[in-house]
Design goal:
Elements lengths: L2 H11 L5 H11 L2 H12 L4 H5 L1 E4 L2 E4 L12 H8 L7 E5 L5 H9 L4 E6 L2 H11 L5 E4 L14 E6 L14 H4 L15 H13 E11 L4 H10 L3 E7 L4 E7 L4
Parallel strand pairs: 3-4, 3-6, 4-5, 6-7
Antiparallel strand pairs: 1-2, 7-9, 8-9
Helix pairs in contact: 1-2, 5-6, 9-10
Length: 257
Protein backbone atom coordinates (compact mmCIF):
# COMPACT_ATOMS: atom_id res chain seq x y z
CA UNK A 1 0.00 0.00 0.00
CA UNK A 2 1.36 3.42 -0.95
CA UNK A 3 1.81 6.23 1.56
CA UNK A 4 -1.05 8.11 -0.02
CA UNK A 5 -3.43 5.14 0.17
CA UNK A 6 -2.45 4.53 3.78
CA UNK A 7 -3.12 8.14 4.78
CA UNK A 8 -6.41 8.30 2.88
CA UNK A 9 -7.71 5.12 4.50
CA UNK A 10 -6.78 6.29 7.98
CA UNK A 11 -8.41 9.66 7.45
CA UNK A 12 -11.52 8.10 5.97
CA UNK A 13 -11.80 5.70 8.90
CA UNK A 14 -11.58 8.69 11.25
CA UNK A 15 -14.57 10.27 9.52
CA UNK A 16 -12.80 12.87 7.37
CA UNK A 17 -15.24 13.58 4.55
CA UNK A 18 -12.55 14.96 2.22
CA UNK A 19 -9.95 12.33 3.01
CA UNK A 20 -8.27 12.40 -0.41
CA UNK A 21 -7.88 16.17 -0.43
CA UNK A 22 -6.61 16.25 3.14
CA UNK A 23 -4.14 13.43 2.46
CA UNK A 24 -2.71 15.36 -0.48
CA UNK A 25 -2.19 18.45 1.66
CA UNK A 26 -0.55 16.51 4.48
CA UNK A 27 1.77 14.62 2.13
CA UNK A 28 2.75 17.88 0.43
CA UNK A 29 3.59 19.37 3.81
CA UNK A 30 5.76 16.60 5.28
CA UNK A 31 7.16 13.10 4.98
CA UNK A 32 8.47 10.33 7.20
CA UNK A 33 8.03 10.76 10.99
CA UNK A 34 6.79 14.33 10.61
CA UNK A 35 4.01 13.22 8.27
CA UNK A 36 3.09 10.41 10.64
CA UNK A 37 2.82 12.83 13.54
CA UNK A 38 0.56 15.09 11.49
CA UNK A 39 -1.69 12.20 10.45
CA UNK A 40 -1.99 11.07 14.08
CA UNK A 41 -3.06 14.57 15.09
CA UNK A 42 -5.67 14.76 12.33
CA UNK A 43 -7.01 11.26 12.96
CA UNK A 44 -7.33 12.24 16.61
CA UNK A 45 -9.75 14.99 15.62
CA UNK A 46 -7.52 18.07 15.55
CA UNK A 47 -8.60 20.55 12.87
CA UNK A 48 -6.66 20.19 9.64
CA UNK A 49 -5.75 23.87 9.71
CA UNK A 50 -3.97 23.48 13.04
CA UNK A 51 -2.09 20.45 11.77
CA UNK A 52 -0.97 22.29 8.63
CA UNK A 53 -0.41 25.61 10.37
CA UNK A 54 -2.47 27.52 7.83
CA UNK A 55 -5.97 27.95 6.44
CA UNK A 56 -7.02 28.87 2.91
CA UNK A 57 -9.05 32.08 2.78
CA UNK A 58 -9.79 34.24 -0.26
CA UNK A 59 -6.94 32.60 -2.12
CA UNK A 60 -4.45 33.26 0.69
CA UNK A 61 -2.66 30.89 3.05
CA UNK A 62 -3.41 32.43 6.43
CA UNK A 63 -1.25 31.41 9.40
CA UNK A 64 -3.26 29.63 12.10
CA UNK A 65 -2.16 28.34 15.50
CA UNK A 66 -3.90 25.89 17.83
CA UNK A 67 -6.79 27.45 19.71
CA UNK A 68 -7.27 30.35 17.30
CA UNK A 69 -10.53 30.71 15.40
CA UNK A 70 -10.21 29.08 11.97
CA UNK A 71 -11.44 31.35 9.14
CA UNK A 72 -14.67 30.06 7.58
CA UNK A 73 -15.54 30.21 3.91
CA UNK A 74 -18.76 32.10 4.69
CA UNK A 75 -16.64 34.98 5.96
CA UNK A 76 -15.37 35.51 2.41
CA UNK A 77 -18.77 37.14 1.86
CA UNK A 78 -17.81 39.73 4.48
CA UNK A 79 -14.68 40.47 2.45
CA UNK A 80 -16.70 40.78 -0.75
CA UNK A 81 -19.09 43.27 0.81
CA UNK A 82 -16.20 45.22 2.32
CA UNK A 83 -14.40 45.49 -1.01
CA UNK A 84 -17.48 47.06 -2.55
CA UNK A 85 -17.03 49.94 -0.10
CA UNK A 86 -13.28 50.11 0.53
CA UNK A 87 -11.46 53.05 -1.03
CA UNK A 88 -7.94 52.29 -2.33
CA UNK A 89 -6.28 54.46 0.35
CA UNK A 90 -8.96 54.36 3.03
CA UNK A 91 -8.63 53.64 6.75
CA UNK A 92 -9.85 50.11 7.57
CA UNK A 93 -10.21 48.60 11.05
CA UNK A 94 -10.93 44.94 11.75
CA UNK A 95 -12.21 44.17 15.25
CA UNK A 96 -12.21 40.66 16.78
CA UNK A 97 -9.73 39.88 14.02
CA UNK A 98 -8.51 36.43 15.11
CA UNK A 99 -5.92 35.52 12.48
CA UNK A 100 -6.75 38.78 10.66
CA UNK A 101 -7.80 36.74 7.63
CA UNK A 102 -10.32 39.41 6.64
CA UNK A 103 -7.76 42.16 7.05
CA UNK A 104 -5.17 40.22 5.07
CA UNK A 105 -7.61 39.71 2.20
CA UNK A 106 -8.57 43.39 2.20
CA UNK A 107 -4.93 44.47 2.30
CA UNK A 108 -4.13 42.22 -0.64
CA UNK A 109 -6.92 43.80 -2.69
CA UNK A 110 -6.29 47.35 -1.41
CA UNK A 111 -2.52 47.42 -0.76
CA UNK A 112 -2.52 51.20 -0.20
CA UNK A 113 -5.13 51.12 2.54
CA UNK A 114 -4.27 51.97 6.17
CA UNK A 115 -5.18 48.71 7.94
CA UNK A 116 -5.51 48.28 11.71
CA UNK A 117 -6.61 44.99 13.33
CA UNK A 118 -7.43 44.15 16.95
CA UNK A 119 -8.02 41.03 19.02
CA UNK A 120 -8.15 40.27 22.74
CA UNK A 121 -6.49 36.83 22.45
CA UNK A 122 -2.67 37.05 22.50
CA UNK A 123 -2.28 33.84 20.46
CA UNK A 124 -4.58 35.23 17.77
CA UNK A 125 -2.65 38.49 17.82
CA UNK A 126 0.53 36.54 17.12
CA UNK A 127 -1.09 35.00 14.04
CA UNK A 128 -2.43 38.38 12.96
CA UNK A 129 1.05 39.88 13.11
CA UNK A 130 2.35 37.16 10.78
CA UNK A 131 -0.53 37.66 8.38
CA UNK A 132 -0.71 41.45 7.98
CA UNK A 133 2.39 43.17 9.34
CA UNK A 134 4.65 42.11 6.44
CA UNK A 135 2.25 43.93 4.10
CA UNK A 136 2.09 47.06 6.25
CA UNK A 137 -0.88 46.32 8.52
CA UNK A 138 -0.95 47.40 12.18
CA UNK A 139 -1.88 44.91 14.93
CA UNK A 140 -3.09 45.62 18.47
CA UNK A 141 -3.92 43.42 21.46
CA UNK A 142 -6.87 44.43 23.57
CA UNK A 143 -10.63 44.70 23.94
CA UNK A 144 -12.38 46.04 20.84
CA UNK A 145 -11.65 49.76 20.34
CA UNK A 146 -9.57 50.20 23.51
CA UNK A 147 -6.06 49.70 22.03
CA UNK A 148 -6.68 51.64 18.81
CA UNK A 149 -4.79 54.91 18.28
CA UNK A 150 -6.93 57.91 19.18
CA UNK A 151 -6.00 59.40 15.79
CA UNK A 152 -8.39 56.93 14.14
CA UNK A 153 -11.40 58.27 16.02
CA UNK A 154 -13.80 59.83 13.51
CA UNK A 155 -11.47 58.96 10.60
CA UNK A 156 -12.21 55.27 9.97
CA UNK A 157 -13.77 54.69 6.58
CA UNK A 158 -14.57 51.01 7.11
CA UNK A 159 -15.01 48.93 10.25
CA UNK A 160 -15.34 45.15 9.82
CA UNK A 161 -16.03 42.60 12.52
CA UNK A 162 -16.64 38.88 12.67
CA UNK A 163 -17.37 39.14 16.37
CA UNK A 164 -18.36 35.95 18.23
CA UNK A 165 -22.10 35.42 17.70
CA UNK A 166 -22.79 31.88 18.91
CA UNK A 167 -25.26 31.87 21.84
CA UNK A 168 -23.60 30.42 24.93
CA UNK A 169 -25.91 27.42 25.17
CA UNK A 170 -25.46 26.63 21.46
CA UNK A 171 -21.70 26.11 21.72
CA UNK A 172 -22.31 22.55 22.92
CA UNK A 173 -24.09 21.86 19.61
CA UNK A 174 -21.21 23.01 17.41
CA UNK A 175 -19.02 20.50 15.52
CA UNK A 176 -16.30 19.09 17.77
CA UNK A 177 -13.52 20.68 15.71
CA UNK A 178 -14.87 24.05 16.83
CA UNK A 179 -16.17 23.49 20.36
CA UNK A 180 -13.27 21.29 21.49
CA UNK A 181 -10.36 23.12 19.88
CA UNK A 182 -11.14 26.78 19.27
CA UNK A 183 -10.89 29.23 22.15
CA UNK A 184 -14.25 29.92 23.77
CA UNK A 185 -13.60 33.66 23.62
CA UNK A 186 -13.70 33.35 19.81
CA UNK A 187 -17.12 31.67 19.83
CA UNK A 188 -19.22 32.83 22.79
CA UNK A 189 -21.50 35.75 22.02
CA UNK A 190 -23.47 35.61 25.26
CA UNK A 191 -27.00 34.48 25.99
CA UNK A 192 -28.45 35.47 22.61
CA UNK A 193 -25.15 35.63 20.73
CA UNK A 194 -25.27 39.39 20.28
CA UNK A 195 -23.43 40.75 23.34
CA UNK A 196 -20.20 41.63 21.53
CA UNK A 197 -22.00 42.81 18.39
CA UNK A 198 -23.89 45.32 20.55
CA UNK A 199 -20.63 46.58 22.04
CA UNK A 200 -19.10 46.92 18.58
CA UNK A 201 -22.15 48.84 17.35
CA UNK A 202 -22.40 51.10 20.40
CA UNK A 203 -19.06 52.86 19.77
CA UNK A 204 -18.91 52.59 16.00
CA UNK A 205 -20.22 56.07 15.21
CA UNK A 206 -17.43 57.62 17.31
CA UNK A 207 -14.77 55.93 15.17
CA UNK A 208 -16.37 56.10 11.74
CA UNK A 209 -15.77 58.99 9.39
CA UNK A 210 -18.92 60.70 8.07
CA UNK A 211 -20.36 58.30 5.51
CA UNK A 212 -18.22 55.46 6.89
CA UNK A 213 -19.51 51.90 7.25
CA UNK A 214 -19.52 49.12 9.83
CA UNK A 215 -19.90 45.58 8.48
CA UNK A 216 -20.72 42.76 10.91
CA UNK A 217 -20.98 39.08 10.05
CA UNK A 218 -23.98 37.42 11.70
CA UNK A 219 -26.43 34.59 11.05
CA UNK A 220 -29.55 34.88 8.94
CA UNK A 221 -31.65 34.18 12.05
CA UNK A 222 -29.91 36.86 14.11
CA UNK A 223 -29.69 39.48 11.34
CA UNK A 224 -32.81 41.44 12.39
CA UNK A 225 -31.43 41.80 15.93
CA UNK A 226 -27.98 42.73 14.62
CA UNK A 227 -29.53 45.38 12.38
CA UNK A 228 -31.51 46.64 15.37
CA UNK A 229 -28.31 47.05 17.39
CA UNK A 230 -26.80 49.14 14.59
CA UNK A 231 -29.94 51.27 14.31
CA UNK A 232 -29.94 51.79 18.09
CA UNK A 233 -26.36 53.07 17.76
CA UNK A 234 -27.46 55.70 15.26
CA UNK A 235 -26.38 53.90 12.09
CA UNK A 236 -28.50 53.18 9.03
CA UNK A 237 -28.66 49.39 8.68
CA UNK A 238 -28.91 47.15 5.64
CA UNK A 239 -28.63 43.33 5.44
CA UNK A 240 -27.14 41.15 2.68
CA UNK A 241 -27.06 37.36 2.39
CA UNK A 242 -25.18 34.88 0.21
CA UNK A 243 -26.89 31.56 -0.45
CA UNK A 244 -23.68 30.24 -2.00
CA UNK A 245 -21.65 30.33 1.24
CA UNK A 246 -24.54 30.85 3.69
CA UNK A 247 -23.02 34.15 4.75
CA UNK A 248 -24.92 37.08 6.22
CA UNK A 249 -23.58 40.60 6.70
CA UNK A 250 -25.27 43.62 8.23
CA UNK A 251 -23.97 47.02 7.19
CA UNK A 252 -24.35 50.11 9.33
CA UNK A 253 -23.62 53.52 7.79
CA UNK A 254 -22.86 56.75 9.62
CA UNK A 255 -24.79 59.61 8.06
CA UNK A 256 -22.73 62.47 6.62
CA UNK A 257 -22.87 65.16 9.27
Amino acid sequence: MSTEQNVVERLRAAGCVFAEDEAALLIAAASGPELEAMVVRRVGGEPLEYVLGWAEFCGLRVAVESGVFVPRRRTEFLVERALELAAPDGVIVELCCGTAAVGAALLKARPDCDLHVVDIDPVAVGCARRNVEPAGGHVYEGDLYTPLPASLRGRTDLLVANAPYVPTQAIALMPPEARLYEARVALDGGADGLDIQRRVAAEAAEWLAPGGHLLIETSARQAPQTAGALEDAGLTARTAHSDEVDGTVVRGTRTRR
